[in-house]
Amino acid sequence: MTLPARPDRFDRLDALRGLAMVWMTGFHLAFDLNQFHLIPRQHFYADPFWTLQRMAIVTLFLGCVGLSQAVAQAQQVESPRFWWRWARIAGGALLVSAGSALMFPRSWISFGVLHAVAVMLLIVRGLRGLRLPDWGWIALGVGVFAVASRVSHPLFDARWTNWLGLTTRKPITEDYVPLLPWFGAVAVAMGVGQWLLRSRPALLQGGLPAALQPLARLGRWSLPYYLLHQPVLIGLVMAWTYCAPNL
Predict the structure, then answer these.
(1) pLDDT single digits (tens) 34-70
(2) Rounded to whole angstroms, how far apart are CA atoms 247 and 117?
């Protein structure tokens, strides 16, 4: 099943990605306020209220990646376009590592969400020749989750191996999105996306209410927004802590 070479934007998919950005921004704002002791002390690494939110946000992000790859495969996106997008994501991941190393030298981000997306895009592209059906992608995703839930070894606890996800303990880092089990979310979303494009295309390609158009516009600029939102938030919080006593 092939879509036209240049279809209109999938506004609903863009809006879903924009929703993830807004939710992430609210989460990170609360995190920053907590870091600067501007709200009652929160335990972001242990409190289910925050850990479950983080899990939901990452799932939504990676779900959008899988859906987008299903669309790209149906559109038969050419190699130069793919590699240009991949290079921007990989470059963004390097910036995140460098910036986090300056702010959190003991818990810098070696394999966060952008690192994961960069690797997962390569895997999806490598599997493209198999022409997996929708159920095949979903079965692959379920298998990834099953392996991740049952296999672990101290060998994978090191900084340079924990990106696989088969650790015996969670590493100390500000963002951690290992290949296992999170590639399972991308694979399942890839299968769901293929099924939607074949059986229920209107759910992805349908119109979007005017009130949700800002979310769609935000979703089209997800990478620069992702890279810039935390420096901006931290700058605003720091400015507040400096100016508030003088107000």
Answers:
(1) 999 999 999 998 899 999 999 999 999 999 999 999 9
(2) 44
